[in-house]
Specification:
mainly alpha
Length: 313
């Protein structure tokens, strides 16, 4: 009996492969790409546990002291690293607090617009900044928010107010940093929620209108529940990047006056790794950053499933 079952399963497997072998052939190239350019380079994570030498292979390098954790200990004893971790968490948390709900609200507003042409115009204008690099945005910010010659401060001075040090005061720098991020990513992130809104059944709105629901009630009881899975998925992905940081954004906007709040992990790695040639130290920092991000990702996904959501996987 067992032989018959095994033979039947083998035939099903052979028939399945004959029917869908082209799909597996198509998958071979992307799988090879990830293996060659994503998984094989992971072997260089060992640099975090070894004394880096330019003239030795990764397998020949001697192990670091303290059972290989020398550079992790050295990183946590470095005041600049602790400051970079604090700034990264602070800026990413503010980005999440301010920048995450902004495209949701904007998508809801666009969805309520009656005139399609005006809707397309507003959407186009708002997602255009996404295609600008942070170097260009930083140059524009310096022209607009400069203490003496910036457009905003010139206007404030003519109105009788004191100029605001948007880029020179740590508190105002953080505010400017977060708002520039919202301005850059608002329109592009809105596209995701507008796509989710198109999947809501129009009959639900008709039923709500028959029941006497006003516009706000339709948004609360129909629209928001309809896009809730998309919101949860994107929130989980954003929480998984809570300790990651872009390099170009803080580096382009930073200056010595705001170094205490603008130095993040990416700029720390650049300063100590590329310019300071401490590759083992910065590899250890990068590994720590990745592990923390993975932990946040799994925790956020488990929390979403606990409260009845599907999660990412």
């Amino acid at each position: 009996m067992a032989t018959v079952l095994t033979t039947g399963r083998a035939r099903k497997a052979i028939n399945y492969i004959r029917s869908y072998w082209t799909l597996y052939v198509m998958l071979a190239l992307p799988i090879a790409f990830f293996v060659i350019f994503r998984y094989i380079p992971m072997s260089y994570i060992l640099i975090a546990f070894k004394k880096y030498s330019l003239f030795q292979s990764i397998w020949e390098m001697p192990w670091a002291d303290n059972y290989g954790f020398e550079y992790f200990i050295r990183a946590f004893q470095n005041r600049d690293f602790i400051n970079a971790v604090r700034n990264t968490l602070m800026l990413n948390a503010l980005d999440l607090l301010v920048g995450f709900p902004a495209p949701i609200i904007f998508a809801l507003l666009l969805n309520e617009l009656v005139y399609p042409r005006y809707k397309r115009f507003v959407q186009t204008v708002t997602y255009m900044p996404y295609f600008l690099s942070w170097i260009i945005i930083a140059g524009m910010a310096m022209q607009v928010f400069a203490p003496n010659t910036g457009v905003v401060n010139v206007f404030l001075r003519r109105m009788g107010y004191q100029p605001i040090p948007f880029l020179n005061d740590p508190t105002w720098w953080v505010v400017t940093y977060v708002l520039l991020g919202v301005w850059k990513h608002l329109g592009w992130n809105t596209i995701i929620y507008l796509a989710a809104l198109t999947g809501i059944n129009p009959e639900l709105y008709e039923a709500a209108e028959i029941d006497g629901a006003n516009r706000w009630q339709k948004i609360r009881y129909v629209t928001l529940p309809g896009i809730r899975p998309t919101i949860i998925t994107l929130l989980i992905l954003n929480l998984g990047q809570i300790l990651s940081s872009d390099f170009d954004r803080p580096y382009a906007l930073m200056n010595p006056l705001v170094y205490d709040v603008s130095n993040v992990i990416a700029t720390y790695v650049y300063t100590y790794g590329i310019r300071g040639l401490q590759f083992s130290l910065t590899t250890a920092v990068g590994l720590f950053q990745s592990v923390v991000c993975v932990i946040f990702l799994f925790a956020a996904n488990a929390l979403a499933k606990k409260y009845g959501e599907r999660g990412v996987w």
